[in-house]
Specification:
- The complex is a heterodimer of chains A (499) and B (171).
- Chain A is mostly helical.
- Chain A has one domain.
- In chain A, 73% of the residues lie in helices and 1% in strands.
- Chain A has 20 helices and two strands.
- Chain A has a two-stranded antiparallel sheet with strand order 1-2.
- In chain A, α7 packs parallel to α20 and α14 packs across α19.
- The longest helix of chain A is centred in the first third of the chain and has 34 residues.
- The mean pLDDT of chain A is 85.
- With 171 residues, chain B is mostly helical.
- Chain B has two domains: 72 residues; 66 residues, no CATH class.
- In chain B, α4 runs antiparallel to α5.
- The longest helix of chain B is centred in the middle third of the chain and has 26 residues.
- Chain B is flat.
- The relative contact order of chain B is 0.10.
- The model of chain B has no long low-confidence stretch (mean pLDDT 90).
- Classes of the chains: A mainly alpha (499), B mainly alpha (171).
- At the A-B interface, α8, β2, α9, α17 and α18 of A face α2, α3, α4, α5 and α6 of B.
Chain lengths: 499, 171
């Protein structure tokens, strides 16, 4: 590891990288601060921009958006009692009450420091755990890789949305979309319907713009007329925390960072789960339980540390196994792969200098997030007020420009529109979109490993149960399915009791 | 002009109120199950024509998509079976209420997107489509602030210029 740190630092500390990090952090904070705009939407919109950049600045830019999105969501949660992103919902429970007590700056300060600690902690974990997991991943063969893909898809299909069956259907659709284009093993075309442009398959970014971004625009049809009010002049407190408060937030921040890392490593789970889990843990551990829900500093710290501690951890399965920890990092995989960087041990050996630069960069991203948070919070607060009349067409223009710029073709813009309609219909059927995304990301890898394994075994499916790793992953799949079904049953029972 | 806009607004509000009252109840799981089952059948039907294979392949290019569609259809059967069971037991089905106003508004938004795309494509000038998109959405939101029109159009041109001159996307 140490042999890569020096060259990696040299690659990382360039003016270009610093600028891209700061641009990413700024855009991420702004997007996440606006209710209704998500981090995943922001990453999708700006993904085509990274196609023109090399691996390090491209990844730094996207990681800047991703990490700052974790903090940005808390700004509107604290100021206007509306979480900018879903994972800031737990922050809102105590952030807004504290703000109402006239301590807006203090609440924002706790959120910022907790987010930064969680993010840096997570980045350090990635730095140390990443190469170790990659070592194990290098021992996996094609059959084992297929089981890993199956494990990732099972969890994601299970936890996204209310119904596991609908999650599996959505994952199947995503996997089928990945089959469009040339066969990865024989190069014969599949499902192209005589359209030559489909021979190369559908670009991930183009599909996602329709699936996640344009459908959000169409969902403006569901908006009710409402006006947001925030008076930044009211942020008059000096943001000072008492020594007792400083002492009280230390342990929740640390514990929540640990929880965030553990949750982040598991594919399919994400910042929302981590922040709620940490919030409840902090509440149970606190000596001031009565303050929770009424402006508890521990509550804000726990939720924010956890949702940012997920950021580095989600990259561990992504960089080592190619299994994204959540939907947002799944998109980042294409930014890596377009630069010829494929997940696995080679990332930490052959391309070690680039990979370590990215991992060290994640620490830097969090530090710049702290800096921008300290200097620009008032601006982020004002951003909450950007009217949707201005924002909506601007997002559409970004979507169209992004889709066109991938292959410089209007055909792709048309494809995004088709995917927007598909996503709208899927929404009507309560079908989750994240399993489709994961299916598309993992499709080629899943199919190639499945077919290669059967090719090796001369068509004998016993190969999928032939090694210890295969059996471990099979056990994990069964365990995950059982846990998901049990969870859904408990949820259903609770809902019935509520009725 | 002002009076005309006010009359138009009042008329649109009246239409909106009428549409908002029209709800459709859809048995969502049953419909999804049937629809995706039929989709699976369609994919299986077109697969032989759409996926060329060689006799030499141990596992050919049809195996994986066929496997996926079979899995999807099994899930659909589960969904349909669950709802049919509820029907037989006279339990309430999983339903979703679809509001006509929301769907009409979504259709209008989609039309703005589609026309913007067609303008971009056939004029081969992205900026023209972008400006139309801005104006279309501002009219959709019934925005009456001239400043918003100016800001949005200026931003649209700025985004086009950023892509055109900084990212070298020639459109």
């Amino acid at each position: 590891m140490m042999e890569f740190i020096g060259p990696a630092a040299g690659l990382l500390f360039t003016l270009q990288n610093i600028l891209w990090i700061n641009l990413g952090v700024f855009i991420g904070s702004v997007f996440a601060a606006i209710p209704g705009l998500s981090v995943i939407l922001c990453v999708i919109l700006f993904l085509p921009v990274t196609y023109r950049l090399s691996a390090i600045p491209g990844m730094m830019f996207l990681l800047g958006i991703y990490c700052a999105g974790g903090y940005g969501g808390s700004v509107s949660a604290i100021l206007i009692n509306t979480p900018g992103t879903p994972h800031a919902a737990a922050t809102m429970l105590d952030g807004h009450p504290l703000s109402k007590k006239g301590r807006t700056k203090a609440a924002l300060k706790i959120a910022l420091y907790a987010s930064t600690f969680g993010g840096v902690f997570s980045a350090i974990m990635l730095l140390f755990l990443g190469p170790q997991v990659a070592q194990i991943a290098s021992q996996l063969g094609t059959a084992e890789y297929f089981m890993v893909c199956l494990f990732g898809l099972t969890i994601i299909a299970g936890v996204s949305g209310k119904s596991m069956i609908k999650g599996i259907i959505a994952a199947c659709i995503g996997l089928l979309i990945s089959c469009i284009g040339s066969d990865p093993m024989t190069s014969y075309d599949r499902y192209t319907f005589g359209i030559p442009r489909l021979y190369l398959g559908l670009d991930l970014a183009i599909c996602l713009i329709g699936l996640f971004a344009l459908v959000e625009i169409m969902s403006r049809a569901e908006d009710k007329k409402e006006a947001l009010h925030v008076d930044t002049k009211k942020m008059l407190d000096d943001g000072t925390l008492t020594p007792d408060e400083k002492k009280r937030i230390r342990l929740p921040i640390f514990i929540s960072s640990l929880i965030g890392v553990m949750v982040g490593i598991i594919p399919g789970t994400g910042a929302s789960e981590a922040s709620w889990f940490s919030y409840n843990t902090a509440k149970n551990m606190s000596k001031h339980k009565e303050e929770f829900g009424h402006g508890s500093v521990e509550g804000i710290a726990a939720a924010e540390a956890a949702n940012n501690a997920v950021t580095g951890a989600t990259l561990i399965p992504l960089l080592t196994l190619g299994i994204p920890g959540d939907g947002t990092v799944a998109i980042m995989l294409s930014a890596l792969m377009i630069n010829g960087l494929n997940p696995g041990l080679s990332l930490f050996t052959t391309d070690g200098d680039i990979m370590y630069a990215i991992m060290l960069g994640l620490i830097l991203v969090n530090l710049f997030m702290l800096l921008q948070g300290k200097l620009l919070t008032r601006l982020f607060a004002k951003v909450v007020l950007i009217p949707k009349e201005i924002l909506t067409p601007i997002i559409v223009i970004f979507c169209f420009a992004g889709a066109y710029s991938v292959n410089k073709n209007y055909f792709d813009v048309g494809v995004t529109l088709i995917f927007a309609v598909i996503a709208w219909i899927l929404r009507k059927f309560d079908m989750p979109a994240v399993p489709i995304l994961l299916g598309m990301v993992l499709g080629k890898m899943t199919e190639t490993n499945f077919r290669r394994a059967l090719f090796i075994s001369d068509g004998n499916p016993k190969i999928f149960f032939s090694s210890v790793y295969c059996l471990i992953f099979l056990g994990l799949i069964i365990l995950a399915v059982a846990a998901i079904i049990r969870g859904k049953m408990v949820e259903k029972k609770a809902a019935n009791k509520g009725k | 002009m002002k009076a005309l806009i006010e009359r138009l607004d009042a008329r649109l509000d009246a239409i909106g109120e009428r549409l908002a009252k029209k709800d459709f109840v859809v048995p969502v799981d049953l419909t999804a199950g049937i629809l995706f089952f039929l989709f699976g059948v369609f994919v299986l039907a077109v697969t032989p024509a759409q996926v060329t294979i060689s006799d030499k392949d141990v596992v050919n290019g049809r195996v994986f998509p066929v496997m996926l569609m079979v899995l999807m259809m099994i899930c659909c059967v589960f969904l349909i079976g669950k709802e049919v069971y509820r029907m037989v037991r006279k339990q309430p089905l999983t339903i979703k209420t679809i509001n006509l106003l929301v769907e009409v508004k979504a259709l209008i938004i989609f039309c703005i997107l589609l026309v913007s795309f067609l303008i971009c494509k056939y004029t081969e000038r992205f900026v023209i489509g972008a400006v139309f998109c801005c104006l279309g959405f501002l009219v959709y939101f019934r925005c009456k602030k001239p400043a918003y029109y100016a800001i949005t159009v200026a931003l649209a041109v700025a985004i086009w210029m950023a892509f055109r001159y900084l990212l070298k996307v020639n459109f």
